Amino acid sequence: MVASSIIEKVNAVLADEFEVEAEDITLHANLRETLDLDSLDFVDLVVIIEDNFGFKVNREDLKAIETFEHLYDYIHKNVSA
């Protein structure tokens, strides 16, 4: 999957699922703050990524992700593997 299509898909899915404005999702925005993630939302995020991109998410890896740019890179790396 091409990186630009990953970014578009991630932004669309997360904006819809977490009810945030798409323009609030930027490369350097803090993932947890922008999506207002609590522990249950974090589980939802894992499921959303797994369902939409077809790979098993390592929760420890995801916990280390701070920005959307890191999330895009993580998804791209795992989709391309």
How would you state the average pLDDT, rounded? 95
Low-confidence stretches: none
CATH superfamily: ACP-like
According to DSSP, the number of beta strands is 0
The CATH architecture classification is Orthogonal Bundle
**How far apart lie the N and C ends?**
11 Å
Topology readout:
Elements: H1 3-17, H2 31-35, H3 39-53, H4 59-63, H5 68-80
Helix pairs in contact: 1-5
Brief summary of the model shown:
By secondary structure, this protein is mostly helical.
Question: Would you give an account of this structure?
Answer:
By secondary structure, the chain is an all-alpha fold. Helices cover 65% and strands 0% of the residues. It contains five helices and no strands. 11% of the residues are buried.
Observed structural traits:
81 residues; Non-ribosomal Peptide Synthetase Peptidyl Carrier Protein, Chain A; globular
